[in-house]
Every structure is written in structure tokens, then in C-alpha cells.
Amino acid sequence: MKALVLAAGMGERLRPLTDVTPKPMLELGGRPLIHYPLAMLRRGGVTEVVINVHHLASAVSRGLGDGSRLGLRITYAPEPVLLGTGGPLNGLREFLGGNNEKKIENENTFVIANSDTILDLDLRAMLAMHRERAAIATIALFHPANLDYYSRLEIDACKKLRRMRLLARRDPLQYDDYPAALDDNLAAWLSPFMYCGVIVADRAVFDLMPPAPPWSLMAGLFAPMVAKEMPVFGYVHRGYFRTIDDLKSYDALKAEFAASPPPPIL
Question: Digits of tens for pLDDT over the chain (266 positions)?
């Protein structure tokens, strides 16, 4: 199985550290941050990874090489101009989508993962749910203490995503809703979560995405799918989860790792 790991961002909220080191290569627990999502993918059965790179791209490729030391085969998708979180898919249809004539299960499905997320996600269980529900996409979800800091992805009792409330601004709190309107009775029964950095998708999404970058994974592809009531589901992760948003959260996580290492996630 194959995966795309998103690593092209500028890491602006981590400056000045990211002026000289790309965010995925910042040290945490004695290893680069990106090692953690790569290990999660490997445990879940991913064998081939493509990493999109832009800011200080050579530092990422030098640090990871061909992936053999991590038990993976890694290739790189350079972006001279940033393509957005979804734009890399336009150029990776053949790599991730496989041969349309193939009926092999793993060839129909691929994974998208953030490079700055640390979690002990059971990717194999997520894949099993994705296939059982005949989903086009399944999005990993988590319920943090500070949910208002993030976009809200709302699922029903069957774990189907019924509304995405993409964060437009925090002060005052404002969302762009997909669908724009939702029956009050349905909305009252939905459970809100945040996206926690992993998506399982079938190659059918390539026929639904915008024709050219730049575009956003959520606003450009998955939120419109939810608005059309397509089979997009949420997989609720209740285990270990950390992400780095800024210098404050990075310093806090380094201190946490020093004081109490996380459960085995490598």
C-alpha cells in the first residue's frame, strides 16, 4: 500500500527554528518529527511513501534518504511553487491511484498523512472500517480539550461525516459550513471532532478533485463530498495524539517527552 506524506509547508509559526530546519525534521525525542508518522504508516502496512517537499527540501531528502533505514521505500515530489494540501494529488494520480484495471484491494486504497502528527493510530483497523463501510474516504478524528481551536468534523451514530465546519476565524469564532444548512434535528445528534492527520481514500477521489492546484484537501475535496452526502466516514482515534502547531506547543511537547516518553510508537 502507498501513502502521501505532506511535508512541503513553510512552518511559519515555528520560526526562527524553521528558517534553518524544515518542520518535519525538527528534533523530538531524539529523532526527526516526521519519523513518527512514517512509523505509524509502516505499522499499518504501508510500504511505499511519496513525500512532497518545498521549504528546505534537500534537508528532508538528505535526512530520510530512500527510506530503507525506516523500512519503507521513499520517493519525493518537489514543489517549486506550493500546491496546497490537496494539490500534490494532481501529479500523483498514477503513483497513488494505481492501474485502473487492477482489482487488488490495496491498489484501490491509499493513505494521506501529515508530517507533524504523532499518534498510535491503528491504521489496519481504520482500513478495515473503510472497506466495511464501502467508503470513498475515511478521516481520522480526535476529540481534544480545545476543540474550538480547530475545524469541527461532525459524525452521526454510524460514523458517517454529516457536516464539516471549517474554521474561518477564531475571534470571533466563525466557520464555513459544508453543507451550508443542516436540519436542526440532525445537527443536535452529531458528535464533533477534529481532524488528526490521517486520511484513507479510494482512487475514486481522483475523479472528484479540482483539476489544477493549488487547492485544500478539506475545502477543495472532502468537505464538498460531505455536502453531497457521499460516503465519507470518520474513524475515531482514542489513543495517543499530539501535534505541533507553534513554538509554544513544540516546547511543551519536548518537555513532555523528556519527562515521560510516550507509549511505544516507533
Answer: 999 999 998 888 989 988 999 999 999 988 999 999 999 999 999 999 999 999 999 999 999 999 999 999 999 999 999 999 999 999 999 999 765 555 455 568 999 999 999 999 999 999 999 999 999 999 999 999 888 889 999 999 999 999 999 998 888 889 999 999 988 888 899 999 999 999 999 999 999 999 999 999 999 999 999 999 999 999 999 999 998 889 998 999 999 988 887 776 65
Distance CA 20, CA 241 (A): 27
User: CB–CB of 121/140 below 8 Å?
Assistant: yes
**Of 121, 108, 93, 109, which is closest to residue 212 (Cα–Cα)?**
93
Q: Residue with C-alpha cell 478533485?
A: 209
| Strand pairing class (73-78; 48-53) | parallel
Per-residue cell: 84: 496546497
Residue whose grid cell is 502507498:
2
C-alpha cell at 13: 509559526
Residues in the chain: 266
CB neighbourhood size of 108 (10 A) = 17
Contacts 24+ apart (CB under 8 A), 246-253: 246/13, 246/14, 247/13, 247/14, 247/17, 250/14, 250/17, 250/26, 250/28, 253/28, 253/118
Please say whether the beta carbons of 17 and 247 come within 8 A.
Answer: yes
Domains of the chain (ranges plus CATH)? 2-259 (3.90.550.10)
Question: What is the model's pTM?
Answer: 0.92
